[in-house]
Amino acid sequence: MKTSNRPRLALVTDAWSPQVNGVVTTLSNLVRLVRASGIDVTVVEPSMFRSIRLPGYAEVRVAAAPVAVYKTIGALRPDYVHIATEGPLGAIARFWCRRRSFPFTTSYHTQFDQYAKRVYGIPPAPVTAYMRWFHGTAEKTLVPTPSVARELESTGFQNLVVWSRGVDSALYHPSARDADWYDTGNPDARVLLYVGRVSKEKSVEDFCRLAQSPGYSCWVVGDGPHRRELAERYGDRVRFVGYKYGEELARFYASADVMVFPSRTDTFGNVMTESMATGTPIAAYPVTGPIDVVADGYSGALEENLAAAVERALACDRDQVREYATRFSWESCAQTFIESLARPDTDKA
Fold it and tell me: For residues 149 and 143, is the Cβ–Cβ distance under 8 A?
């Protein structure tokens, strides 16, 4: 029997703290606002179970206790189930729902077909087929941008809802800018920043190559399996400073001249909205993610030639960049999520 009249949501995710990525940022903000709306949220995540490390990604753990996961979801007796990721936890939650004819929603955060190809050399077709199967029986699948929706629909995905992201515009603010923050050794150098995981699928080396220009001072905020190799190759020209958080991260964003986003595989890229909120424009490729997040020529520049994108981004008005970023709202993100939840027709005792 229920002990509360508040509806209960089981949010199942293979990505959760201490991982540092856009999925965790999105879900953390979402949980806070969904709870504030009057829904009890339990996050079913890897640290609750026996887990193993994902090869090549020491910070990522995947659950390896299917029976325990299955029983945990059942014990929650949820009114809603949202499956945020397609990993082991997500697959078990999907099985739990399907076995009970329990309606559920899912969200699509990562282009795993491209990720698997670039990192592990796995052909995209079987990964795409798995993803289509995984999301195929969801009542709704939430996707981050219209471009992602169009791409997925072209490969057979259905029942898609565009679910944008937000930004903490109070933390990430132009007031964090510090003209002396970066020790470039050259007062005339323009500071280029990369923020994110340092891994092959992020194309961080494309960013590092920009350091060949003497007019740029390049800084990498983040860590990952590709950091050591890139540091050995570019360490005399690129500064690698590891992960940064909160106000310190905001100062890195705000004090840069351009934030470069070289990934071709991201579906959104929360770091772009964070950077723009501080007034720092974006230089990126014209691909899924940036084409829906960056206003080309207004809050940044999109070019197949990253160096050309940087030069155009430098001309952006920082006040306009900030204004554009404030259009992204975590409150709107949470509202779309809540409105998309699927509830069984019959109440549980």
Answer: yes
What is the value of pTM for the model shown? 0.91
Find the length of the chain: 349
Residue 197 C-alpha from the chain's centroid:
11
Cβ burial of 259 (10 Å; 0-12, 13-18, 19+) is buried
C-alpha 64 chain-centroid distance: 24
184 phi, psi to nearest 5 deg: -90, -20
Handedness of CA 178, 183, 188, 191 (dihedral sign): negative
Rounded Cα gap, residues 348 and 253, in angstroms: 48
Residues 244 and 252 sit within 8 Å (Cβ to Cβ): yes
d(CA 338, CA 120) in angstroms, rounded, equals 36
pLDDT in single tens digits along all 349 residues of the chain = 455 689 999 999 999 988 888 999 999 999 999 999 999 999 999 989 877 766 555 566 666 678 999 999 999 999 999 999 998 999 999 999 999 999 999 999 988 777 666 666 778 788 899 999 999 999 999 999 999 999 999 999 999 999 999 999 999 999 999 999 999 888 889 999 999 999 988 999 999 999 999 999 999 999 999 999 999 999 889 999 999 999 999 999 999 999 999 999 899 999 999 999 999 999 999 999 999 999 999 999 999 999 999 999 999 999 999 999 999 999 999 999 999 999 886 444 3
Contacts of 323 (CB under 8 A, 6+ apart): none
What is each CA distance from 341 to 5, 13, 30, 32, 333, in whole angstroms?
Answer: 17, 16, 13, 16, 13
